Amino acid sequence: MPIYTRRGDLGKTQVIGSTRRLKDDARVGAYGSVDEAGAVIGSVIAFVASDTAVSDVAEVLIAVQQMLWDVGADLARVDDKKHSYRTPDTAATQLEPIIDRYQGELPPLTQFILRGGAPSGALLHLACTVVRRAERDVVHLQRLETIHPPVLTYLNRLSDLLFVLARVLNARAGVPEVIYEHSAHVFRS
User: Fold this and answer.
1) Contacts 24+ apart (CB under 8 A), 21-27
2) Residues 54-108: pLDDT tens digits?
3) Residue 22: pLDDT band with limits 50, 70, 90
4) Helix (H) or strand (E) holding 71
5) Cβ atoms 177, 125 nearer than 8 A
6) Which of 11, 78, 104, 177 is surrounded by the most beta carbons within 10 Å?
């Protein structure tokens, strides 16, 4: 199969169960943002893959990439009853014990922090912001068309996980967090 088909040359693409859509369509934008998030996460995996001190984080991120393919497929699918959704109803709640486990490694946050740190942590902060954009894109799409609700819940919880994992990567690398200088004490337990 050739990588180029020429079918998208006029600015349209195929979505599952529907006719072709313009590439700036809200549905195409939503799954495009999810695809971008997966690519940024792949960059983080490339940074940490050979580091045994964070191999557990790499395993979590690989599982996240797998789920993001399912999320993207569900967003590319127009409700046509011929294809079943891939994102399970429990996708978000499955992330919660992972978030709790890694958050247990970290000092509690009392103020906002600046995104950055070690290269892998900074990239994971970037992935978090891309997921948050994907979530906004899905909310916009949801106002226009039907979506599979677990997709939105998963993206919301995933941004929490990525934020926590970015902090973990920075902590394990010995890079201190930088407090936003105008931040009041905003987080409570």
Assistant:
1) 26/137, 26/140, 26/141, 26/144, 26/145, 27/75, 27/76, 27/78, 27/141, 27/145
2) 999 999 999 999 999 999 999 998 876 777 899 999 999 999 999 999 999 999 9
3) low
4) helix 55-75
5) no
6) 177
Whole-number Cα distances in Å, 162 to 136, 168, 187: 16, 10, 18
Q: Under DSSP, is residue 13 helix (H, G, I), strand (E, B) or coil? A: strand
Please count the residues of the chain: 189
Q: What is the DSSP-derived secondary structure letter of residue 178?
A: P
Which tokens sit at 12? 């349209």
The two structure tokens encoding residue 19: 């006719």
The most distant pair of C-alpha atoms in the chain lies apart, rounded to whole Å, by 56
The CATH fold of domain 12-172: Hypothetical Protein Ta1238; Chain: A; (1.20.1200)
Domain spans, the chain: 12-172
Count of other CB atoms within 10 angstroms of residue 126: 19
